[in-house]
């Protein structure tokens, strides 16, 4: 849960804090939850498909072009 990942993935990801003292345990618990919870996996998969629609190379290129044009 750091950098640009929360902004990009939003609610389509299962974030785990591994930087804390018990980071290894956090990761193990998260993996166990994810493996054993089919509805969570399906929900995140569907959210990921929807989230993906917010990003495209065309959209990125258009935004970059607009920024360059305004320089």
Word description of this protein:
- The chain is mainly α and 71 residues long.
- Helices cover 66% and strands 0% of the residues.
- It contains four helices and no strands.
- The chain has helices at 5-9, 23-36, 38-52, 57-69.
- It is elongated, with a radius of gyration of 17 Å.
- The N and C termini lie far apart (34 Å).
- The mean pLDDT is 92.
Name the shape in a single word.
Answer: elongated
Query: Measured on Cα atoms, how large is the radius of gyration?
Result: 17 Å
Average predicted local confidence, pLDDT? 92
Distance between the termini: 34 Å
| Class based on secondary structure composition and strand pairing | mainly alpha
Order of secondary-structure elements: HHHH
The low-pLDDT segments are none
Number of H/I helices: 4
Residue share in helix: 55-70%
Proportion of residues in β-strands: under 5%
What's the short version?
By secondary structure, the protein is an all-alpha fold. It has helices at 5-9, 23-36, 38-52, 57-69. Helices cover 66% and strands 0% of the residues.
What is the topology?
Layout: H1 5-9, H2 23-36, H3 38-52, H4 57-69
Top keywords for this entry?
single chain; mainly alpha; 4 helices; 0% strand; elongated
